[in-house]
Amino acid sequence: MAARKPAQKSNTSGEDLLKYYRDMLLIRRFEEKAGQLYGMGLIGGFCHLYIGQEAVVVGLEAATEEGDKRITSYRDHGHMLACGMDPKGVMAELTGREGGYSKGKGGSMHMFSKEKHFYGGHGIVGAQVPLGAGLAFADQYKGNGRVTFAYFGDGAANQGQVYETFNMAALWKLPVIFVVENNQYAMGTAQKRSTSTPELYKRGEAFGIPGETVDGMDVLAVKSASEKAVAHCRAGDGPYILEVKTYRYRGHSMSDPAKYRTREEVQKMRDERDAIEHVRELILQGKHATDDDLKAIDKEIKAIVNEAAEFSKESPEPALEELWTDIYA
Amino acid sequence: MATEILMPALSPTMEEGTLAKWLVKEGDAVKSGQILAEIETDKATMEFEAVDEGIVGKILVAEGSAGVKVNTPIALLVEEGESADVAPAPKAAPAAAPAPVAAKAAEPAPVAPKADTSPDWPAGTAMKTMTVREALREAMAEEMTRDGDVYLMGEEVGEYQGAYKISQGLLDQFGPKRVIDTPITEHGFAGIAVGSAFGGLRPIVEFMTFNFAMQAIDHIINSAAKTLYMSGGQMGCPIVFRGPNGAAARVGAQHSQDYSAWYAQVPGLKVAIPYSAADAKGLLKTAIRDQNPVIFLENEILYGRSFEVPDLPDFTVPFGKAKIWREGSDVTIVSFGIGVSHALDAAEKLAAEGISAEVIDLRTLRPLDTATVINSVMKTNRCITVEEGWPVASIGNHISAVLMEQAFDYLDAPVINCTGKDVPMPYAANLEKHALITPDEIVAAVKKVTYR
């Protein structure tokens, strides 16, 4: 990806820019805190951080309406925060406590919210793709005009079930947006080492599914692509593929020694392409807020994240009886 | 106040590690995100970054130290002008881990467990004769009429009228919105069906045979069976996966496997395996109404067999209630699915030799009606199990374990598990016959446990 052009004046309102700034910052600070709690041994198992990819979910969510659904993989904290789930409940799930979204029984990779139409949090690479098409199938069956965002990565894009799903989604004109979050590394395998056809937005061509690629470090570009995709689905024209080019700053999971890329590569992305810095510049240049205003937002976000961390430590572990509940409805 | 830098946990299994190398020294100013040290975990060498800004006041653990426990202070971070000698207040020791839950104590002296012995339909109910095939079709048609959210999806279920004609007429009756032909992509359509159940529908997924469901088993187990638990009870999955299971005739190894024990092992799934037409109808209606994922194992050879079915407007059979097909006093034969047919044939032969066998049809494998089995064994003191599947980790093995734990004092002989042979299904007619369980083998096993 080329270095970001100097931020140009945008037509987006100051109010919207400030919302995106706030939403992306919440994800970043939340994830940094999660990384700290992991280091302290308060979070166990796998923990996949979303740092660097914030503009993807925030941009896509900007085009949603109440009732639209979303489903993703195990790198899911950002999606939950972006759709309005409570940071306290998410963090407490990471620490495996009673106050977590899944009462401590799901963990980092498995959280859900019926209220926010967030359908997980799935740990098997690619499984969320047919599941997402199934959510869209249910909406089409009910004729309610909703769309589903099925997120997956460049790694999952090589899974067979993705293409089985493309075939049926196109055949049945399901209202589903397949969002490929291409962060360029499937765990430690660079994209060029895993496929001869890296243009993932073209992967639906064989089924007649339109696709486009968008700069995932630019929240405004993601938002406008999302609006187009949503309009396509709501018009009953079937599925749409959005390949969002992004970059994760951290390892695949907490135990990733990251020997497959250089620190310089990561640092260059942070310095030149950071999505939050981009919006910050737009806000300051457009005089939508002062540096002090943004500092106040930073402080506010830090307080929300600290409150979530405190809650996640204070919430008790689930009662032992919970071992035996929720196996059958 | 100095801040302690603690030895971090850098992998899911890390309890201690080696502090391989310090990349800062005492007196250095550090920024948040700066690499402080290299740490060897049980998996790899990791770079450890600073969280807070400050000055390295003191290094507490020298580089090269091995076996440094997670959360041990390894350095002190101080503010400008602060002394590193001011040790931070000691933290309270972490609370001891709670004691593991004690395993449930073994049942004390065997007491007759309470079994549901109520009849499946009221005495005097009018009966009609129908095949298992017709019973299954009627169950689906009734439930699709009753609930508009129920739909049928699978290969050839619509225009072809069902590969085994189970869905005959349903497309005409309910239309293509509710009877959906899929391409031959089990993994994909099983995932779509599970997603639609998360989204509020009640799918019936027909697998042309359960052999093909191995392509979809990730969605059956990881997506359907586990999500309610993983979501803390929020996201249920009411879905039925149905189709023929086990051997048909002469179709070879890849089309002739019995999956009963596989699915019965999974918490979160329910597993029904009817033998008769009445049970096929009553259990399938219960399965479609269930709020949980149900595996419904049919049998191609049984599809064409006729049975008496109660002529009731809404006949259902509850899960977890075994059926006693034949009462007896000398031995209990426990089976399910097509095994019941062999068990009844064997019981007939045994009766001719003066041995009275009680034949129990489990009907559902999860939940499993162990009470009816134990009560029977308390009467007969002998038990054999009959199933078509492989011997290792079979349903019979599980029944044997339950009896040993809960009715040991009532057993006068070891439980024998009659199963299919421990081989892939051969094609040759003579070999296939030998690979399957036969009534003669059941008779021989009964004679062994009754010492005749």
Question: Please, could you describe this protein's structure?
Answer:
The complex is a heterodimer of chains A (329) and B (452). Chain A has 329 residues and is α/β, with parallel strands linked by helices. Chain A is globular, with a radius of gyration of 19 Å. The N and C termini of chain A lie far apart (48 Å). In chain B, the strands form five sheets. Chain B has a seven-stranded mixed sheet with strand order 11-10-12-13-15-14-20, with helices on both faces. In chain B, β10, α2 and β11 form a beta-alpha-beta unit. In chain B, α3 runs parallel beside α4 and α9 crosses α10. Chains A and B meet through α1, β2, α5 and α6 of A and β5, α3, α4 and α5 of B.
The separation of the N and C termini of chain B measures: 86 Å
CATH homologous superfamily annotation of the largest domain in chain B: Thiamin diphosphate (ThDP)-binding fold, Pyr/PP domains
CATH architecture of chain A: 3-Layer(aba) Sandwich
- Strand portion of chain B, in percent? 15-25%
Task: Give the topology.
The complex is a heterodimer of chains A (329) and B (452).
Chain A: H1 14-39, H2 54-61, E1 69-72, H3 77-82, H4 87-94, E2 118-121, H5 128-142, E3 148-153, H6 160-171, E4 176-182, E5 185-186, E6 189-190, H7 191-194, E7 211-215, H8 219-234, E8 240-245, H9 263-273, H10 275-285, H11 291-314
Parallel strand pairs in A: 1-2, 1-3, 3-4, 4-8, 7-8
Antiparallel strand pairs in A: 5-6
Helix pairs in contact in A: 1-2, 1-10, 1-11, 2-8, 4-11, 5-6
Chain B: E1 3-6, E2 16-22, E3 29-30, E4 35-40, E5 45-49, E6 54-59, E7 65-69, E8 73-78, E9 127-131, H1 132-146, E10 150-154, H2 170-174, E11 179-181, H3 186-198, E12 202-206, H4 217-225, H5 227-230, E13 239-244, H6 260-264, E14 270-272, H7 277-289, E15 293-298, E16 306-310, E17 323-326, E18 331-335, H8 338-352, E19 357-361, E20 364-366, H9 370-380, E21 383-386, H10 395-406, E22 416-418, H11 429-435, H12 439-449
Parallel strand pairs in B: 10-11, 10-12, 12-13, 13-15, 14-15, 18-19, 18-21, 21-22
Antiparallel strand pairs in B: 1-8, 2-4, 2-7, 3-6, 4-5, 6-8, 9-16, 14-20, 17-19
Helix pairs in contact in B: 1-7, 3-4, 8-12, 9-10
